[in-house]
Amino acid sequence: MSWALDEFFANVEEEFGISIEDAEQLDTPGAVIEYVVSSTTPQDGMDEEEHREHVAGVVGELMARTLGITRYRNDWRFSDMK
Length: 82
Prior knowledge:
By secondary structure, the protein is mainly α. The protein has one domain (3-80). Helix content is 55%, strand content 0%. The chain has helices at residues 3-16, 29-39, 48-67. The radius of gyration is 12 Å and the shape is globular. 16% of the residues are buried.
């Protein structure tokens, strides 16, 4: 895994207060979003849909900041994104 992906996953862990044991299994943005949604609970009165949208937005911001990726689809593999 590249240093940029390591940094991305470290930021995801810090932002959401979770531990990611096997980051290599989370090879798409959608997989990361699903993992975070299933590992956290909605806050501030959010329903499940709002929680998912919030997580997706934060993951997108972290991808932009650490990986320089601003346009993506949830099923694209990190290894294919340039």
